[in-house]
Amino acid sequence: MLFSIKKFSVESVADNTNLDILADSFEGLEIGLVTLDSDMHILSANKKLQEILEIPPNILQTSIDFTEVVEFVHTRGDFATAGIEVTVNKLMEGLRCRQLRSHEYDTADGGHIRCDIRPVGKDSLMLSFQRSAVGEAIASALEESEGRLSDFAEAGSDWFWEMDENYKYTWFSDNYERTYGIKAETRYGNSRLDLIVEWADTNGAWQHRKCLEERRPFTDVISRPKLDGGEERWIKASGAPFFDSYGEFRGYRGVSSDITEELVQRRRVVSENERIATAMDRFNEAIALFDDQDRLIFCNKAFHELNSRISDMIVPGITFEEIVRANIGKGHFSEMGDKSEQFVQSRLRKFYHPEEPVDLELHSGVWLRVSIKALENGERAVVSNDITGLKRAETELRAAKEQAEQANRAKSMFLANMSHELRTPLNAISGFSEIIGQELFGPLGNPSYVEYATDIHASGQHLLAIINDILDLSRIEEGQDELEESESAIDFVIESCMPLVRERAAAAEITITQDIATDLPRVILDVRRMKQILINLLSNAIKFTEPGGEIVIGAKLDEAGSMKLMVRDTGIGIEPEDIPTALEPFGQIESSLSRRYEGTGLGLSLAKQLAEAHNGELKITSELGVGTNVQIILPPERLVSTKTIENEP
Length: 649
What we know:
Strand order of the largest sheet: 7-6-11-10-9-8
Structural class: alpha+beta
Radius of gyration: 45 Å
Oligomer: single chain
Strand content: 15-25%
Distance between the termini: 81 Å
């Protein structure tokens, strides 16, 4: 966050506190920042940029040409993205064109940096740098310049002067003429007060005159002298009274420095910071900066709007706790009953010991995600984002999920409860049609009746099988189906499936062969359910294999020690992207298949569910027009013996 930058006195301009606060606020936002004038000279930089760019502090100083910074990182190997010169040229072109642009490049140490160029005001630029971990900003050179000027004054590197008891100049050192090109003699006999046309402070003339009359030393008095050509120059003067051997006041001696360029630069920095503060007001995030005593330093416009109920209280100096309590008093947060004090203490703990962001609901229904960043100097940056849309989406998603689960439970419960109602009449239809078809009570007279009765029986049996699959799948989904496990030989399980499918395969002119490895271990499984899996897979293979085709059913151990059962056919095959659809309940890859090949699409889904009930998995590989291979993989923990029993009881 930033603080509002207004007009400063010249003394306050020399203070870098405001710039430091500004830099720390951007550190809180994880942004390295530098501002440039129209000649691409550095006006200001925050304290994180040096870490991001990993360069010595002497290269990042106020008034230095920023192209020197680019050249430095370029020379050491940055801009390592494809075509070093191309990347550097694009960056420099963006600076010269002063257009909103973004650049990304790799650094010599393998890092990655994004640079955003934004025009600020009429002629200036603001550059932001960001890396995977945001670095230190460029240190301002103004404070160093201020100290250097003081050292010059102490060492007499600028010019010295002397004036008499009437404050009239009697002597200048040679540096005066070198600085202004004015002969010192032209100033002799002129009062210091008369030669000054403007003071840095509003009451500067009165305060300085009072100091002289009281014979007190003065330090760093800034004023603008009267020059012959009307040129505007600013000097900083320090002086001390001197007395003769009798103690009589004889005048002042002192040292002066020309600080015109420094003041111009500082004023330009202040102007740029005002523009930056304005830019911060354009952020959607509510941003505030608090000092190490919990007092507000700065907040942007969004923060004021967020705290509109207590807007008149949001001024520098108010504490974080006072803001929280005032908002509670105005009903800013959602209803909290008698837990307001608990809420305050919780907010203070997270303020002083920031951890993960906190989500808060306001009385208006708005949700905020509040992040607090502790800065190295003890200050804290608070950033609040509106996440109402995200919360609404989460709520809608949760409601949709619950609705879908409820509908699925209702469907499964309905199917489970329909077991008796569906199976009883179908069993009756199958039984009576079988009696009629076999003419158990005498001949029917017309052979067509026998044929019709046989068709009724076949259709009833087919419908009953479908209903059984649906009900089995429903019970599995509801968790009502428990396995009846026992030790069995897998070759016995496979062989017991053959009578149920062999006749159908022969009628379709399809050959079924077995490929079972010898000495397979016994397996713990539900024999009825495993037969159901294999019969479903074999039935599917017969259904989708043309006459003259071949089906292979087999079993072996894989390299991981798992038991692998396999049903492979030479049928029509499946496109790989359609396999997930085929595994879904009632999944038919295309409607034409459901018309050409009878069935509901439950076989594979039921086989998959039953395999997973055995802690196994079902895998399908297929190629259109070549065939399909379905594997059931049972984990090693289900294997109990290395012998296969020849005659399973």
